[in-house]
Amino acid sequence: MNTLKKRLRDFKLAGILSGLEQRLNYAQKQSIGHLEFLELLCEDEENSRRQNSYNKRYAKSKFPAHKNLETFDFSFQPSIDQRLVNDAATCFFIENKKNIIFIGQPGTGKTHLSIALGMIALSKNFKVLFSSVGEMLTQLNMSKADNSYYKKLQYYLEPHLLILDELGFKKLPAFAADDFFEVISKRYEKGSCIITTNKPFEQWHEILGDHILASAILDRIVHHSMIFKVTGPSYRAKNIEDNK
Asked: How far apart are CA 47 and CA 24, in angstroms?
């Protein structure tokens, strides 16, 4: 048994190794055949690798919280078409390199929905990365100091789905428009984005401080996009009222 376990470790078959003794006991008690026993071991290995892959991708996704669609109160936000959100949950938009944009005031559930769709994408074996717009642009700008800019840029280009949160909460510094354009233009028709913003499209030039770049960014983002305009009240304000 020790020799067998060593070989399983050498072959990196951790799934089989972890459940080997239990499977042996089960096989003996149930008198199952060799083929069925081998199938059980292969199933253990497949499940182990799938879970390990998910755990690694989840760790890299940088989600600030765990959210799902089941806990989202669509009745409180009737402006959001639940059928369209459920369509997005199939992740067809990622397969087709399309984008999703949530537009609405703070506290209306935009980030909740973006994380929930990202979690579903992870479960379907897609690579996902979550970042606030400000954090991404700060990281890109800082990377210029040590000549790691293109490596950092690739970090934001690699995921199948890039979730950019809180566009418009703060006016971006002068350098930001160029870097934001760089990310969006290089992901255009190559990878999907979910963007949450509290500003309508016509005000994006104010956020970015550059009319021309704002137009170019919008042109690439809005093309092939699902746009959700959330016009309902704030969940956070509701919770404050409920707790009074």
From this structure: 18
CA distances for 190 relative to 88, 95, 157, 158, 187, angstroms: 18, 10, 9, 10, 5
Secondary structure letter of residue 188 according to DSSP: T
Cα 205 from chain centroid?
26
The parts of the chain modelled with pLDDT lower than 50 are: 243-244
From the centroid of its chain, how far is CA 47? 22
Retrieve residue 214's tokens. Answer: 């704002």
Q: How many CA atoms lie within 13 A of 51 on its CB side?
A: 8
Q: For the whole model, what pTM was predicted?
A: 0.87
pLDDT 10s digits, 185-202: 999 999 999 999 999 999
* 21: Cβ contacts below 8 Å, ≥ 6 apart: 1
Which domains are assigned to the chain?
A: 2-60 (no CATH), 69-242 (3.40.50.300)
